[in-house]
Amino acid sequence: MVPDGHSPSHSYDYDLLILGGGSGGLAASKEAAKLGAKVAVLDYVKPSPAGSKWGLGGTCVNVGCIPKKLMHNAALLNGNYVHDQPHYGIGVTPESIEANYGMTQDNTAATHSWDMLKQNVQNHIRGLNFKYRVDLREKEVTYLNLLGKFVDKNTIETVDKKGNVDTVTFSRCMIAVGGRPTPLNCEGGEMAISSDDIFSLDRDPGKVLCVGASYISLECAGFLRGIGKDVTVAVRSILLRGFDRECAKLIGEHMKDEGIVFREEVVPTKLEKVGEKIKVTFSNGESDEYDTVLAAIGRSGDTSKLGLENVGVAVNPKNSKISAKFEQTSVPNIYVIGDVMDGCPELTPVAIHAGKALSRRLFGGSNQAMDYRNICTTVFTPLEYGTVGYSEDEAIAEFGEETVTVYHKYFIPLEWSLSPSRGSHQGFCKAIVNKHTDKVLGLHYLGPNAGEVMQGFGTAMKLGCKFEDITETVGIHPTTAEEFTTLSITKESGEDAAASGC
Amino acid sequence: MVPDGHSPSHSYDYDLLILGGGSGGLAASKEAAKLGAKVAVLDYVKPSPAGSKWGLGGTCVNVGCIPKKLMHNAALLNGNYVHDQPHYGIGVTPESIEANYGMTQDNTAATHSWDMLKQNVQNHIRGLNFKYRVDLREKEVTYLNLLGKFVDKNTIETVDKKGNVDTVTFSRCMIAVGGRPTPLNCEGGEMAISSDDIFSLDRDPGKVLCVGASYISLECAGFLRGIGKDVTVAVRSILLRGFDRECAKLIGEHMKDEGIVFREEVVPTKLEKVGEKIKVTFSNGESDEYDTVLAAIGRSGDTSKLGLENVGVAVNPKNSKISAKFEQTSVPNIYVIGDVMDGCPELTPVAIHAGKALSRRLFGGSNQAMDYRNICTTVFTPLEYGTVGYSEDEAIAEFGEETVTVYHKYFIPLEWSLSPSRGSHQGFCKAIVNKHTDKVLGLHYLGPNAGEVMQGFGTAMKLGCKFEDITETVGIHPTTAEEFTTLSITKESGEDAAASGC
Ligand SMILES: Cc1cc2nc3c(=O)[nH]c(=O)nc-3n(C[C@H](O)[C@H](O)[C@H](O)COP(=O)(O)OP(=O)(O)OC[C@H]3O[C@@H](n4cnc5c(N)ncnc54)[C@H](O)[C@@H]3O)c2cc1C
Ligand SMILES: Cc1cc2nc3c(=O)[nH]c(=O)nc-3n(C[C@H](O)[C@H](O)[C@H](O)COP(=O)(O)OP(=O)(O)OC[C@H]3O[C@@H](n4cnc5c(N)ncnc54)[C@H](O)[C@@H]3O)c2cc1C
Ligand SMILES: NC(=O)c1ccc[n+]([C@@H]2O[C@H](COP(=O)([O-])OP(=O)(O)OC[C@H]3O[C@@H](n4cnc5c(N)ncnc54)[C@H](OP(=O)(O)O)[C@@H]3O)[C@@H](O)[C@H]2O)c1
Ligand SMILES: NC(=O)c1ccc[n+]([C@@H]2O[C@H](COP(=O)([O-])OP(=O)(O)OC[C@H]3O[C@@H](n4cnc5c(N)ncnc54)[C@H](OP(=O)(O)O)[C@@H]3O)[C@@H](O)[C@H]2O)c1
């Protein structure tokens, strides 16, 4: 890092001002305060175009990870109800067995109350918002519910809810304003909602079109379908760009099996109101009507009204994000972390980790930089996807076909095996390995509890794990994670990688 | 290993005869056959004292891991039904919301059909038995459904179902006969069933007494309670001897919360038939009546009728197990793997791993010994427990109080957080660390999906993981596994390790 001019004897209001109280900002603020810095966090939620608002904590808590995972869990629980419970004897009576010739059928779909789900999810979030406020107070971080904008490199102008303007000064600043959903840019695009709105929607979403084919679109399509909605996904090009192609394909097939409709290689060209519905015309000329159109076509840095031009911090015009080296912007006392940093993976633990590490460098004498390599991640689609390291395609592109070998395996999760309607569903795992060094380049897992399975392997990857280290690990039986420990079939062998018995 | 006299040009029937077609024997047989050896597996199931019988595959598939995990899953699914589903909107109608002032209550217990569960579990097992037979045939292993007994160090006498006697000869032998439940040794003890019988019980277990306080007893008590039975556990001394004391205590408290009755520091002294019930008198003079008494008081090596005296292989009289060095018994061409080997952790993947590694040494020129250290394991109690390495108590005993530091944390799994009746339940994790070297000595996790969470950390432990490697791993959010990556509070600090917000 470049010297930033900070001295403990400055005369500004704060040692550190953090712009944005999301995952990254909050973590960084508490860490800096713990190290003795005088810290303030400015957090202000601008309503979404559709009018949704929320409390302290940023995207993850309010309109991201937390409501998403809870709704994903609703879908899993509903799947348990429909597919599994009767076969495990739940809700089954001697009479119902007899009526079905000894075998119960699946449950038909349960009634599902969107209102109950949404309300309980929102109540949980309110609880978290409150905890965050208490937490900041306890950790002696000043929380300012104000919208901020740079005046100069040590001054921010603030505006409160009522429009009152003030200023606050600081020796150092961290920009942690995150991003916002990219709006749908076609005729009538303003009728679409985004992930900022879906989790608090005060009517049943009904028949839904999800536009986009990455994380957010597919996760939302997945949980909406899982609680019984009629769901279509509009895919511009491919599913899950940037992820392993084979895994993306399996996720798509599984979603189709669950009844999600994919409209391939189309974008919406026009949205119009037809009675209570929204009629969507696609680029191939086809059209259909939906109750809800959810645009999840990417996120842009939330920098347009930050006054960055007043201090000379440059933004990438493509995504409105701020570029930095070791989280330091072109203005040495102004730092950036989390989603708004150009090139940063948009993930909560990344923002948290980078924020804490930066605070330790700024106020704790640490020189440990954030390590952005081999970050494990999970996509909470109906068939969950956990991954760390290279995709097969990337590995081959980087190391060459002759260096890369792939061990792969399909498996049937034991928990699905009593349920006939899960019959066609399988889990899958693979390890991408450097043939010459035996080093693991990437791990991929499709199946239940993908995030739980992948986390520990993330630590193993940090330790430079070889393939042999995994296969020499004694498995835990019966789990799905143990499938990694018994990988033995390479793709090049041409042997069958199909699921076999326990 | 000591030279065992094997030469490829011997004149015996088989290069390798394996006694016992369980987890270890089957894996070893297929590995040896793949390496070109002529292999036979002898497997014969002696009925339990209560008359239960089963097919090929040994304990794990028929009367162990597989039926246990499926019944544990039944209990989890039932818990989802009771505690979670209504709060996620499942089975909720607008009318039911109104009737409950805006909040649904938990579901009352669902009807549960033991018969359906048992039948589907048994059907699944039949399918696996069949797959194993096909698998052996495909891998060119001869399967002999015969009971074996040593005549001399190269000959086994076999008996078939009809009592026909024959012999089979071999150059090398692997003993993989596993163990059987220790019978309850008190007046009327024969009225108790064991884990050999519970998973195929052809009547509803009703009110159950589980005798014993280790793995098997607590897991069975857990799933029986989870599907709605009235369950009591008779504890002779402590819960889960050999495991971390703090974790064992939390598991016990959680089981009590779920409605399981613990009778502490008692053993049954007498069982007697009273009508349809079994009256059990305990060592403290108290008594009660049960429909089913399940004895799970340990397992002994299944060696009593093996004719080991004919070849001079010594057994440990305490547990009837065979001692060995690198899986080689005192008779050089006779090897032993799995549960029947003295000192071997009684776990399926251990038997499999040891068996494969041994076959590779015997027929593949390998010299890699089985590594029995840091084996990760999971206890499938209602609050699942995953662990690898030292318990806190063991670590302190071995390294001294001044060397060991413990990082710990309670957490509320997100998936439980919408369900008021889960309110008192928490997850817990801790890392036992060598203060001087930062090396992780042990990891402990209580919460959902414990096996899935622990597996990857098992690989990390194999790699000599330091505590910093875990906390420098970027988490996967939202998971419970990520709790390990944010451990920061040590026990000695006295700081509060209570669960906080997301
Ligand atoms: C639907 C969805 C699902 C997701 N799921 C996951 C997941 O499962 N796992 C995962 O790891 N990540 C997930 N993410 C990504 C994760 O939410 C983000 O990576 C994370 O929130 C980024 O944190 P941050 O601190 O950079 O920004 P944010 O959390 O976005 O916080 C920025 C804060 O700054 C405030 N702000 C903005 N401008 C100003 C200003 N001028 N003045 C004052 N305050 C301002 C904002 O209101 C906001 O509160 C998901 C995202 C979405 C949208
Ligand atoms: C209720 C229960 C739950 C369990 N849960 C788990 C778990 O969740 N995870 C886990 O890892 N482990 C678990 N275990 C332990 C696991 O089942 C054993 O560790 C594993 O089966 C041992 O394998 P093995 O090959 O040594 O012996 P076994 O699987 O017991 O196989 C031995 C075979 O030899 C046969 N045999 C015996 N004598 C003769 C003879 N004279 N001639 C021919 N055949 C013979 C037997 O019939 C049997 O088929 C559990 C055990 C029980 C009882
Ligand atoms: N589980 C998690 O950890 C999690 C969950 C959700 C989100 N996140 C984070 O949030 C970030 C944002 O996610 P995202 O899914 O919104 O965005 P994204 O990853 O940037 O993907 C955008 C998607 O929308 C499509 N698209 C872009 N412009 C379009 C247009 N005009 N019309 C139709 N389709 C268009 C893209 O298609 P093309 O492929 O054709 O460009 C792509 O499929 C992710 O990158 C991730 O880091 C993480
Ligand atoms: N999830 C898994 O991986 C899994 C699951 C199940 C089993 N297993 C394997 O199977 C093995 C056997 O398990 P287990 O639980 O049956 O046996 P165990 O671990 O040997 O424990 C025996 C239990 O019974 C008690 N006991 C012994 N004799 C008794 C008597 N006469 N009266 C009353 N109580 C008595 C012991 O109490 P004291 O403490 O007082 O001696 C102890 O609680 C385990 O060690 C394990 O390796 C693995």
Describe the structure.
The structure is a homodimer of 502-residue chains. Chain A is α/β, with parallel strands linked by helices and 502 residues long. Chain A contains 12 helices and 23 strands. In chain A, strands 1, 2, 3, 4, 5, 6 and 18 form a 7-stranded mixed beta sheet that branches. A 5-stranded antiparallel beta sheet of chain A has the order 19-20-23-22-21, with helices on both faces. The first copy, chain A, has a 4-stranded parallel beta sheet with strand order 10-9-8-14, with helices on one face. In chain A, a hairpin with a 2-residue loop joins strand 4 (147-152) and strand 5. In chain A, helix 1 (23-34) packs parallel to helix 9 (348-363), helix 3 (65-84) packs antiparallel against helix 5 and helix 3 (65-84) packs across helix 7 (215-226). The longest helix of chain A is centred in the N-terminal third of the chain and has 25 residues, at 114-138. The N and C termini of chain A lie far apart (53 Å). The model of chain A has no long low-confidence stretch (mean pLDDT 96). The interface between A and B is large, with 94 and 94 residues. Bound molecules: flavin-adenine dinucleotide (2 copies) and NADP nicotinamide-adenine-dinucleotide phosphate (2 copies).
Rg of chain A = 25 Å
Biggest interface: A-B, 94 and 94 residues
Number of helices of chain A: 12
Please describe the biggest sheet of chain A, giving its number of strands, its sense, and whether it closes into a barrel: 7 strands, mixed
Helix proportion range of chain A: 25-40%
| Bound chemical compounds | flavin-adenine dinucleotide, NADP nicotinamide-adenine-dinucleotide phosphate
Query: Overall mean pLDDT score of chain A?
Result: 96
> What does the overall shape of chain A look like?
globular
Q: Give the termini distance of chain A in whole angstroms.
A: 53 Å
Oligomer type: homodimer
Q: What percent of residues of chain A are in strands?
A: 15-25%
Low-confidence stretches of chain A: none
How does the helix and strand content of chain A classify structurally?
alpha/beta
How many beta-strand elements of chain A?
23
